[in-house]
């Protein structure tokens, strides 16, 4: 009865994993969701969120595995009563612990995928990124459990948790290739770029090679079967090869083409598909500017979002702008202001021009600047919308070169100006 009671206690201790699964699930889901953007659903960043969540879930899984190994160590003699290999129980425990951790990871993955699908998502999923995170988790479980088997002390679980947490904390996104070693730390992926699957493939190889080497090393130590030296050597060689591959990886992202989504009336506005929600506000902000620049060398009929590394320009009727990826308040106004800035001659405008700011305020619908209090400012404010547009067509070269002066705002008594006066004085 005594032996039966101890076997029952052994099985009862394993049921602690049923309690650990929801805890690990909550931890993984919270870590992944905190990394997701609330405004933009980009598949690449969803994968980045999952990979980064492993840095939090992995140490917890390793600590749990070490705690389990330490608790079950005194009952190993019950397994020795059978004719099975002494490594069988260890392998079974590793399978059980890994399964519990992967269940939590799968649930977190499902939550992230659901959140991404609910939004206006863009880009392509990267299954290898999910597999890479799963491989890193299994490696943590193996490290934690085997450490608990080799050093069955009460403090082992806490030390494993501290060591794996420190290992994960050393990962600084984008600093060096070292941050790509599992558990990897990845930076957020900008629009018009995408993750490189080959990096994830090398990470899978690294985690699989080291996991296999650790398991084979322990089995060889426990069973004294030295024939395992050859596969152990191959596993270590795969790990070394993967390490060199990560060192030569050259980064995790590459430029990517994205078919834009557009709205075509009254002008054409095109943005990255992940930012399709920006179309209405961007259209509303750009249309008045396009109407006021119509007939000038700075006229445009198309607004296109460009990657952040490309300059904002206005050429051949196309205005290129940059957008905030999180669509923070005022993004449309900032994009339209980029068009105004692109119309400047950078060298000629280095010293600034208050009168150009007066025209910019009208073009952008902003509050009048200090120059509005001058005689030229009062005269410009008294003109009708149409007269301002006609005036800009005549003085666009001075506007571009920031060479406007008070004389440019005088109303010459030409036939054209008299027609304007007559039109302005006509009763509504």
From TrEMBL:
TM region positions: 47-70, 91-120, 126-146, 158-180, 200-219, 226-246
Keywords: Membrane, Transmembrane, Transmembrane helix
Domain of life, per lineage: Bacteria
The keyword Membrane is annotated on this UniProt entry: yes
Name of the protein this chain belongs to: Uncharacterized protein
């Amino acid at each position: 009865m005594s032996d039966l009671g101890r076997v029952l206690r052994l099985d009862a201790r394993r049921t602690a994993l049923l309690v650990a699964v929801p805890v690990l699930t909550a931890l993984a889901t919270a870590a992944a969701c905190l990394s997701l953007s609330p405004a933009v659903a980009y598949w690449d960043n969803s994968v980045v969120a999952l990979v980064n969540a492993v840095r939090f879930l992995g140490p917890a899984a390793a600590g749990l595995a070490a705690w389990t190994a330490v608790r079950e160590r005194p009952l190993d003699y019950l397994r020795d009563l059978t004719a099975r290999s002494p490594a069988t129980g260890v392998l079974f425990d590793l399978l059980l612990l890994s399964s519990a951790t992967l269940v939590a990871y799968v649930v977190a993955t499902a939550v992230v995928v659901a959140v991404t699908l609910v939004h206006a998502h863009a880009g392509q999923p990267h299954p290898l990124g999910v597999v890479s995170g799963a491989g890193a988790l299994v490696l943590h479980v193996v490290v934690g459990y085997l450490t608990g088997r080799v050093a069955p002390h009460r403090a082992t679980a806490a030390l494993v948790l501290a060591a794996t947490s420190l290992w994960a904390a050393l990962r600084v996104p984008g600093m060096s290739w070292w941050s790509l070693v599992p558990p990897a730390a990845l930076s957020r992926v900008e629009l018009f770029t995408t993750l490189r699957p080959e990096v994830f493939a090398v990470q899978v190889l690294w985690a699989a090679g080291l996991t296999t080497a650790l398991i084979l090393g322990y089995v060889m130590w426990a069973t004294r079967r030295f024939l395992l030296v050859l596969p152990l050597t191959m596993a270590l060689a795969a790990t070394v090869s993967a390490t060199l591959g990560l060192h030569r990886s050259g980064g995790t992202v590459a430029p990517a083409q994205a078919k834009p989504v557009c709205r075509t009336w009254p002008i054409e506005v095109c943005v990255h598909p992940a930012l399709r929600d920006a179309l209405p506000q961007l259209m509303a902000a750009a249309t008045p500017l396009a109407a006021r620049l119509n007939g000038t060398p700075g006229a445009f009929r198309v607004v296109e979002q460009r990657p952040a590394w490309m300059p904002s320009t206005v050429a051949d009727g196309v205005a290129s702008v940059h957008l905030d990826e999180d669509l923070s308040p005022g993004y449309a106004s900032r994009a339209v202001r980029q068009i105004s800035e692109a119309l400047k001659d950078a060298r000629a405008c280095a010293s600034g021009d208050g009168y150009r700011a007066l025209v910019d305020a009208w073009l952008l619908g902003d509050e009048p600047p200090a120059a509005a209090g001058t005689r030229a400012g009062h005269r410009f404010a008294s003109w009708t919308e149409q007269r301002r547009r006609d005036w800009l067509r005549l003085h666009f070269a001075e506007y571009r070169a920031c060479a406007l002066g008070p004389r440019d705002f005088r109303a010459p008594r030409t036939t054209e100006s008299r027609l304007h006066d007559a039109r302005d004085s006509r009763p509504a």
